[in-house]
Amino acid sequence: MTRKPVLLGRPPLLRKTNAELLLRLLRESGPCSKADLVRASGLSAPSVTNVVATLISTGLVETVGEGDSTGGRPPDILRFKAEHGCVAGVEITRDALRFLLTDLNGRELSQSESHIEKSKSTPLQICQQIAKHLWKLLRQKGLLQKQLLRVTVGVPAIVNVDEGTVLAFTALREWNRVPLSLLLTRQLKCPVLIDNDTNLAAQGEFYCGAARRESDFVFITIGEGVGAGVFLNGRIYRGSQWSAGEIGYLRVPQISREHPSIHKYGKLETALSASGILKSWRASKQATTGPRALRVSDVWDQAASGNAVARRLLRQRATLLADVILDLALILNPNLILLGGEVGNHPALLRELNALLAGSEFAVSRVALGALGVPAALWGAISISLEPTVLRLLHAHRRG
Amino acid sequence: MTRKPVLLGRPPLLRKTNAELLLRLLRESGPCSKADLVRASGLSAPSVTNVVATLISTGLVETVGEGDSTGGRPPDILRFKAEHGCVAGVEITRDALRFLLTDLNGRELSQSESHIEKSKSTPLQICQQIAKHLWKLLRQKGLLQKQLLRVTVGVPAIVNVDEGTVLAFTALREWNRVPLSLLLTRQLKCPVLIDNDTNLAAQGEFYCGAARRESDFVFITIGEGVGAGVFLNGRIYRGSQWSAGEIGYLRVPQISREHPSIHKYGKLETALSASGILKSWRASKQATTGPRALRVSDVWDQAASGNAVARRLLRQRATLLADVILDLALILNPNLILLGGEVGNHPALLRELNALLAGSEFAVSRVALGALGVPAALWGAISISLEPTVLRLLHAHRRG
DNA sequence: AAACTTAGTTAATAATCATTAGAATGTTGG
DNA sequence: CCAACATTCTAATGATTATTAACTAAGTTT
Prior knowledge:
2 copies of one chain form a homodimer.
Chain A: H1 12-29, E1 32-33, H2 34-41, H3 45-58, E2 61-66, E3 76-80, E4 86-92, E5 96-103, E6 108-115, H4 123-140, E7 148-155, E8 157-160, E9 165-169, H5 180-188, E10 192-196, H6 197-208, E11 217-222, E12 226-232, E13 235-236, H7 267-272, H8 274-285, H9 296-304, H10 308-332, E14 336-340, H11 341-344, H12 347-357, E15 366-369, H13 376-399
Parallel strand pairs in A: 4-7, 7-10, 11-14, 14-15
Antiparallel strand pairs in A: 1-3, 2-3, 4-5, 5-6, 8-9, 11-12, 12-13
Helix pairs in contact in A: 1-3, 2-3, 3-13, 4-5, 6-13, 9-10, 10-12
The structure holds a DNA duplex.
């Protein structure tokens, strides 16, 4: 047995704390000198020298030569070695896999997509496809397999994040209770985390999208289904059975009551769905031979340019959505509510919503559009991968 | 200027950490010996000796003689000196002030109530009445004024907890933007925190009521108004403008739309209110001369014993409330939803709700009744007062 | 009464950070 | 061009706090 890794109030706690602090400063403010770290951290110069020496010994930090003098000895510039390894974000959708590979600074190395063949869509086959694709991406970028340090996977389902199991996949029954995280960890030989795709999209908008520095917000995505990523106190809130934000069965005015069920869409979800909107549009346009609309955004564009049928469709959906947003605002009082998905992410809908919501004296949340679009969940996956990966490297090396 | 109190990764951080750890252990597990603390904390015996010496020097800990031998030298028993000071919880309602005084272990010293005279109900007069009453209670218990170390006040309003100001008092316009915390701090000469009463009630149920060890739950109170205390990740969630849980304007089926307004009740609130229920009851019972009902609980009792009119009233309200609960469960997925208030806290209502909610495949929260009744908010006030008070004492003494 | 058990203290050692002094290596100004 | 100065970084020393090992204290068990 190794020695017990307790680290309560013993002296090594100081080193750990300060090493994490300096590494964080280096990652956040980019390359700088020891003297800069002294000023930024508040630690003494000898301590910084000492801690940096251990950081360099882990391989996470390196010197990159002299910087410019500012009237004295020129500094040795330090930098976080972001290319030491890489992390990946993966998103599983009904018919495709999406991939994003970044270095340890979250800088994009490659982004790609891969179609899922209907005949090869069992959980195990999907895992194999993911592994194969990731190995290919690594090869293309000249990286070793063991440099892939962590993978986070988004799934359109209720997910037990602790156990790494998929609990309920609205459309795909065979995915029930699949230990996806375990399967992938075995194949990829690195830690794999899985999470709900909408949760990850919210995290992505927080990381580099429209919700930067917002500690409390809700990301609503509307496409075929409806879901919300609830982000509170600076992190994803998942609920006690992992189903927070599953708003497809919400009881709002004009929606008849039913009980939440795992394998079908809720009434609200159906009412707001893309296919429902397109169906209504096509039905009413077969009479008046107007312009074609293949996607919901086309319908919303038509509404914005004055088409009466499209305007009615938009108004109906916005009215429903306004009720949902007000309920969220009353219960959670977030600063911001973001709209995403092919139905949700449109300026015309936003305008309509703002008109419907104006007039509240409290429970006022700013409503806005997501900034990242489709890759939002991938960026969220990267975002929650980076911090634990770096800390793990730091402490693994300090031990061994 | 005093020296800067930075305490990042410097050696004193260890002492601080360990002192807090041992004090917490001592408070949670009651009187024990140094050897017990060694076993419980994982620290070495000399360290415990050392830290305990500093704890004793602050006056927060004392020795109380020898314990029983278990086959060797008998231990010196240590104990947290809970009578070193006291904290108070206060609740302001429309027509009364409620008080709870406890020692630093949260053990009740006295509980009392004081009527608010209509002619003396300005914020300043209320503050004076609170101070006067608290001084009286202290005198009765033989405590000095300076032994009152912290007071937390619950207010039936939206409260800015950071600034200590009352933002919106549904019924009382004169309370708008009152810096209640500042006023009381001046009078009481100790830190005063104010918070929403329903938030505090939720905290109370967590501390010593029906939600012990539940890290995620919602406490719904229904009386004249309707409100929810949202408790997530082990603490009150207040939202970004302090109005989380203000569900009186929630848009659920059967409730017509309106915008949240500060100085009147919402439609849902009105539909569920005690006075509305009693009014309907009296209207329908003037024909059939049945038993009298003075409180809503009497009506619910009648419903439980088969009275048709009462059953209809109960069914109506339960239907509304079931929608609210399902919406909360979908958005937050808490483990538990508690009912409180004179309308909410009744077994007949609970039965009806459970019948209406049965059948969901996910978003299932256990629904139960609050255990503390009227003093819930007072216990919540005590609960959030204790920890900061003890830590403040510990570190104040270690400095001086 | 001797052996053992448990509680607690003292003395020596280790980890870590801060302070002080000084070395390394530039720029600035006469 | 060189002396004075500025900035970066390191080496030596001392302070705080922890641990380990040895020891004292005071009981129970055989």
